[in-house]
Amino acid sequence: MKNFAALLVIALLAVVVLIFVTNPDLLGKIWLYLIGFIGYILALADKGIKSIGKAFKGESGKQVESIPASAPAKVLPIQGTTTVSETEKSELQQKIHELENQLQQAGDKLGEPLGKATLTLLRYMDDGETTLGMFFLRNKFFAYALEDTHRDEKIKGKTRIPEGLYEVGFSPVNPADSRITRDYQAKYNWFTKHIHLRNVPGYEGIYIHIGNTHEHTDGCILIADGINVDVKMALKYSEKAYERFYRIVSALLESHEQVTIQVLNENWFERSKLIKT
Prior knowledge:
about 280 residues; alpha+beta; about 35% helix; eight-stranded mixed beta barrel; two-stranded antiparallel sheet
């Protein structure tokens, strides 16, 4: 049995090596998925730490202190974490930096630059229910993003918007006529009106706002500083990321600067000149 297991491991390693030899471009793509999956790994590690803490209660019944809910986001590649090794952190930071540079320099096969908008949303994973993405502000990594899934036929409130280049502005809806806007105004003293995407074909009221799962999107774009996963894909530390975003973008809009967002589907990597064809 031990010999069989050893042979199986050797065979699997041979297959992996063969894949990389025949598909060298694959090496350039792996980091992109690591950026997203690192959030999952850290979230699961956090969950494991809390479970271990419960098992080590003293006689007094006091539980080992766990990570507080208000702790800073630990899945941001650009901020680092004690859970990921220094080497892994450095590599992820380098890859993010490379992507930021490439957004400014690289274009798609038609010559269109990837980072031509004020905001850029690069979608990288869709599990049939939720889409995860990376959100850039002026070609600098800013936050994670979450949307509904792609559907060939739109289901209202459960379908992400089509990719494209859209103008961004304050919502034209009177706050008195919008419950969600009134709720935000009551809760956040820095908030005035929602920021939305204009002229999205087949959609109305597409906001960029706070939220954690696809159940909170209603077709909109959520942003946050971290990714979490217990039962399903989700974001965490959304309020902090959104406040940063809102203060910057609202100031641009109030100064009458044109703000745009470019949304690109998961195949942006293959369509671009980031890999050799």
